[in-house]
Amino acid sequence: MAAEQDPEGRAAARPLLTDLYQATMALGYWRAGRAQDQAEFELFFRQCPFGGAFALAAGLRDCVRFLRAFRLRDADVQFLASALPPDTDPAFFEHLRALDCSGVTVRALPEGSLAFPGVPLLQVSGPLLVVQLLETPLLCLVSYASLIATNAARLRLIAGPDKRLLEMGLRRAQGPDGGLTASTYSYLGGFDASSNVLAGQLRGVPVAGTLAHSFVTSFSGSEVPPDPMLAPAAGQGSQVDLAASVEMWLERVCGHLGLGVQEPHRGERAAFVAYALAFPRAFQGLLDTYSVRRSGLPNFLAVALALQELGYQAVGVRLDSGDLLQQAREIRGVFRTAAAQFGVPWLQSVPIAVSNNIDEEELARLAQKGSEVNVIGIGTSVVTCPRQPSLGCVYKLVSVGGQPRMKLTEDPEKQTLPGSKAAFRLLGSDGRTV
Amino acid sequence: MAAEQDPEGRAAARPLLTDLYQATMALGYWRAGRAQDQAEFELFFRQCPFGGAFALAAGLRDCVRFLRAFRLRDADVQFLASALPPDTDPAFFEHLRALDCSGVTVRALPEGSLAFPGVPLLQVSGPLLVVQLLETPLLCLVSYASLIATNAARLRLIAGPDKRLLEMGLRRAQGPDGGLTASTYSYLGGFDASSNVLAGQLRGVPVAGTLAHSFVTSFSGSEVPPDPMLAPAAGQGSQVDLAASVEMWLERVCGHLGLGVQEPHRGERAAFVAYALAFPRAFQGLLDTYSVRRSGLPNFLAVALALQELGYQAVGVRLDSGDLLQQAREIRGVFRTAAAQFGVPWLQSVPIAVSNNIDEEELARLAQKGSEVNVIGIGTSVVTCPRQPSLGCVYKLVSVGGQPRMKLTEDPEKQTLPGSKAAFRLLGSDGRTV
Questions:
Q1: Over chain B, what is the mean pLDDT?
Q2: Dihedral over Cα of B374, B380, B386, B390: its sign
Q3: Could you tell me the domains of chain B?
Q4: ipTM
């Protein structure tokens, strides 16, 4: 039971995560005495995704993990027996019980390589019965991983190297493992971090996140914090009542911004204070629960300045609605004047994070020259790949017993190229591809 | 370790399959003394998917399974500690270790109900800290399940009640669990069966499948079957060499169809014989590996008629390329004349199954009056929901301590409606919705 010992075991595919016809064909091969015939399959795609000119090959690590652990358990064999004819020779099931991938050889493009149509991502050779059974799980593991990595790489190319890209699409993913796969392979494709804690725990993806609107709306301002006192960052000196200090700073901030001191929402302020008490070194303000200009921004500045007095530096603000580019510009302007007004230079460059259904077009807008956006959170557009939600990989038999095989079909584009392939990239004397 | 004892445990979400900000907010609530405040969240969508007028609520069973098993293991708490400030009060982690959902109440639309925008699919109430932590996994479990069920129901409405619909999209699914979820909830939405064996084993979905082109191309015709003999269906009488009988029938079939006896591919015929030897009671012919008219169809008829002599009835044919509607019509015509010619009435009504990137438009064409298609296999279009690959469910705080909460934001459509909801469907005196 290798899977149980593997801390990632639960995330991997299982042998029965396959199409029933793989099992019926297995019986067919076995009955024909061909279970051990040496066969080779190639896994490839026919067109680059998203109308683009490349893909990234990904999922190899998951495939290797799956192949290493591949064993049919008793319960699996029993289930297959229930789905096959009742008079099936028991020796077939003994054959299944003994199966593993020790006779299977996989040649593959390295994880994260550029991949092109028709060039095999995987070449899988071994006993016909086993390599046939592997078709569906290998397709499932490679196809979506490669799609996500490619999608993430496209988004990274659009964003340029300097924006911080955060994947935050778990809630919109196609099933729990869809979320884990998306977080893992968007990181491979060029994202900086993910909101998905499990991807951090199981795959080592850096995780990030601060607070949501529900945290803000959960506070009315009438709550009494059990301990509003905060010690200075340096550890020395007396504790300060952060809430009281924030109220004092709020008056100065509202004066500077030309706002009435009653305008900023007191519940939002209480939420910011509560968050700052828990995360004094990592305070981020979510600005748009009520009104960015009249509430979120002054409340953030009051808390950030109160923390600054104690030696803490706020780490950012976040916007999740409205015109993100324009608001970021206005917020940066306010940060600059406040930095000068209150003598706090770092306030000028507080990172501005944005999110809200960002797709390739909106990302290009947010990444344009002069944009004041620093961090971009992308959910649905990266994890579900709405422009093309499947890569359409195929797994085709190219030879048996060293003899090439092909299919013709009624669609010319579905014909296969027989025989085992070797792909070369030709470089000219100047080192460029030709 | 409830999950390990649960045979479906590995398929369920885990507590750390969540966004990091749920954990940072948990610390914020705890630090503010609000972990136990009674809160209520509502899970709903804002627009029906696919431009339609309804959705089906689904995923409740997965949610209940997740909530029942919800416990943070030591390794989970340790990972969270590594992602939170190093000076976090250890008492917070003790609080996490003791968490479960015993104080959480869920009201929900029954699995498979009609659901409409703004009407809660789930209403989750309980201690603020816990119900906040549940946001991401519940969204992940409900959103895709409901999307798939809705998509499947739309496809079923297009197909009408008589076509058999088979989900076969595992290889194109967004991750292994995306495939399992898709198979489970497309069955809920009105499909008849799935190709996904794991969905059969874990969820009781009927599974179906026969053979792929690789099985056909793996045979050249020069293979020598170790045992070509088949006993009659009734069990009495002497065994027959099936391959030899097929060769005899092929001559008669080719004569009837006006084909040369060399035209049908001998490798394809060997594959059909091999499959028929393993599945004499469930022989299906995949017709389009080389040429439907000149090879697949005569080879199928030869094998089906040889089996018929032994008392077996073939269960169908399958097409995976070309104009499916037109070919089904032609094949049905051949079946009718062959049934008359060879005196085998059941041959007229052999089920014709089709597949090949079938979407809503192609399905409508295949389901039109006079169509000779009986079984329709759908993959990518049902599992990835390419018209809209996410439902966009949200989970919003509506009250804390009995007090209603709302957010305003910079986008009017993202405002929430405060307070706990009750939804009614009004029926007129004629029993119709008003």
A1: 93
A2: positive
A3: 2-155+388-414 (3.20.140.10), 156-383 (3.20.20.70)
A4: 0.91
